[in-house]
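Notebook entry, cofactor series.
This is the third protein in the set we're modelling with a bound small molecule. For this one the ligand is 2-acetamido-2-deoxy-beta-D-glucopyranose. I'm keeping the input format identical across the series so the outputs can be compared line by line later. Sequence and SMILES below, as received.
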Amino acid sequence: MAKKSKQIYCRLISMLILGYVMLQYFSLQFMDYSSDRLTDDSMYKKISKKFNMTKFFPPFYRVSTISVINRYISEVNEEQEILNERKFGPIENSSVVIVIQVHNGASYLQSLIENLSRARGISEALLIFSHDFYDDKINDYVLAIEFSKVMQIYYPHSIQTHSNKFPGTAPHDCPRNITRLKALSKRCNNALNPDLHGHYRVAEYTQEKHHWWWKANQVFHKLQVIHNFSGLVLFLEEDYIVAEDILYVLMKMQQVANKFCSDCNAFCLGNRLNSLKLLSKQDIIEYSKVQYSAWSSEQHSIALAFNRTTWSAIRSCAQDFCTYDDYKWDRSLEYVAKNCMEPKLNVLAVKKSRAFSTRNWPKLNVSKTDVELRLASKFGQLYPFKLKLSSLMMKTEQPVEQIRSGEWADPRDHRLCLSAANAVDIN
Ligand SMILES: *[C@@H]1O[C@H](CO)[C@@H](O)[C@H](O)[C@H]1NC(C)=O
Ligand SMILES: *[C@@H]1O[C@H](CO)[C@@H](O)[C@H](O)[C@H]1NC(C)=O
Ligand SMILES: *[C@@H]1O[C@H](CO)[C@@H](O)[C@H](O)[C@H]1NC(C)=O
Ligand SMILES: *[C@@H]1O[C@H](CO)[C@@H](O)[C@H](O)[C@H]1NC(C)=O
Ligand SMILES: *[C@@H]1O[C@H](CO)[C@@H](O)[C@H](O)[C@H]1NC(C)=O
Ligand SMILES: *[C@@H]1O[C@H](CO)[C@@H](O)[C@H](O)[C@H]1NC(C)=O
Ligand SMILES: *[C@@H]1O[C@H](CO)[C@@H](O)[C@H](O)[C@H]1NC(C)=O
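Returned structure with ligand:
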């Protein structure tokens, strides 16, 4: 009897030892990946390939997985690696820096990358992918790009890596639709500050504005490669479709800006009001037309471009941008453009869109934009030689009461947002 229990005991001990050794092995593997300096392209690609969390860690190991993602993110942000730089050379002030905000839409992103690969002038551009979600597939698509310089940055306060604490949903956060009275008696987080519609914070709603703001700050102030760059930064999102002449038209717009509108300080390549009815003859001539007006979120939030001078004017309104009770970055930008910015935000915009958001544009679908752009191309309307200022001026400066969406009243969000602009320390 005693012998048998001794045997069982021995077996248990050896199993424990084996388990311990295996655990050490796995953690060593990851120590290796994260302590490796990411020296050149191929090394970087290899590590990213090896870095397959789903394979190594079953779900119960989540916490470690997240700490591994966190380490990877801070390494990538620190390293600021530019892929294909040797092939395409350094950026010039005449280059365009394209910043793409990416969440988890791998298939959307694949189309955008394909569209960009055909854009004239793309080989002189720098593509910066700004992620708020680590995904192997997306990483693979980005690392496979050969047609221009590429950099990746990661928003470090994502919900993915903060799934049960702020900026994710923390354990004692108030439910969105609880009444203020109930919230106060429950003493849940932020009970004192529901938004203007009486709702409490929803983590998922807040991420996009945080990410937009963080990435603009990161690009203009933290990236070495942008340090001496005074040219244009073009902002895109993962679900866009872009026309092949998008960069060409942007450069043309920059050339004529002084002549057409001496006070415009932003460019827009995606006109939201551009209805996609199939082309008529008259429509076709519109491809060479540009319009000029005060910036509005309704019309000008797709494919917006500006330089550091304009960014500085926006950033000086950080306080307003970060505390305005609206979770949409474009509504917040419109608010500061009208109430704080000096000079105001004035935009030169294409009459016919060169960029389309497929996700937020329910009536739009890929084949429809394709048909339109193919027709335009067939009739030789893309790559307009000369831009014309449309006689049909868009309405400027209308004192309409802006409708606020809310969902942005939690002081924690305000602080996080301000911290991205280094206005206050995050605590
Ligand atoms: C990562 O591992 C999972 C599970 O084994 C697999 O399905 C997936 O294809 C792998 N991804 C990559 C990029 O290798
Ligand atoms: C870009 O132009 C600025 C002046 O506007 C200059 O200081 C800077 O060196 C230039 N950068 C490059 C990369 O040529
Ligand atoms: C964009 O890419 C998608 C996916 O490859 C393709 O179907 C579409 O035709 C492209 N559109 C343009 C304008 O290049
Ligand atoms: C609040 O939301 C929860 C879950 O979304 C729902 O079940 C509940 O009915 C809502 N309560 C009110 C008062 O709307
Ligand atoms: C910026 O330009 C200055 C002057 O040309 C140079 O000394 C500095 O190294 C450059 N900085 C970067 C990050 O390229
Ligand atoms: C940046 O844009 C502003 C406004 O459009 C313009 O006045 C300025 O010349 C631009 N700066 C550079 C260095 O191109
Ligand atoms: C996209 O739009 C075209 C033209 O209106 C239509 O024929 C097609 O069925 C639509 N496709 C989808 C998936 O909605």
